Amino acid sequence: MSLRYLLRVSYDGSRYPEMAKGNTKIGVVDLLEKIISYSLSNDYSLRARCFPSSRTDAGVHAINNAIMVQVPLENDLSCNKKDFLKKWNFLIDSINPNSMKVLDFNEVVHGFSNRHHVSYRIYTYRLAIAKNFEIYENFKNSPSIVCMSEMNYSWILPPGFDTGKAQEACNMFKGCHNFASYYKHPERQRRKEISGNKPFQNTERNILLANVGIGKEKVFENDLYDYVNISIVSRSFIREQIRRMLSIIVAYSYGRIKMSTIKYLFDNPKPSNFYDMKIHVAPPNGLFLTDVVYDPQMYLKPIPHYTTMLDFYKWKNELNSWTYEDSDGETHFF
Question: Residue 311 belongs to what domain range?
């Protein structure tokens, strides 16, 4: 048996090579697993298994992401919540100072899914609009300290951004649409899924909110940039959807594309459209996962009950390790 907790975590995406577990082995989730495990045993065994609700791209930041952690039954975290939070954040700052913070956690029962029980997700994209072309050229040739403070946390753009047109583009995204044109789905992956007889991901999504608002500076008050925040809310998103939406919103605001292009991308939903039309994807550095919202009643009384990957992991005290039995009956160790 095991215990599960839903962590609330903020992190600076510019300080990690990746968020989810991948090739580098030193991403956000990797570090979380290791510091939580170390706090439970001090023997470097990997006692914690973490699974994020939202897998943000490399370079994307989070103000409040949700990550599920599973620990052995004997490691009850709730009895010393304050102490665990203090120790985890101390360990994080000792390894990668000010890069991540565990904000809170709640116990959840088996049957709760940190992905399927999400009510909605909120993303915010920061734009810094240079007030004149000299400022914009200096950003590329001789960046100021203001620019240096913004470059990892916003998309710095030349003057001419039209907030009214940006909102017109945002309005086109609201409601239910097929977002296949905004889906990063490489040809090689599509061929692999076809050969494996696997169904393609459902690309229909419902955008609850897409609004243009006033932003603010990251660190220094200045008269170099105007700041714009674009907020997008939906229950779920497909891979790179928001960054591709931002590409279109920004291009339309500068008059580089027409409304007919936005309509075409919806009327002809194909992942290859961005590549075929030579549309550049917005950089990750301006994107922030602001919040992942749940109904707290689902934590202890989930409706419906879901089976997750965590259900297949079993802690073996005699081995000091998690085990996983695959569909062929073969046992794997972690």
Answer: 2-117+295-333
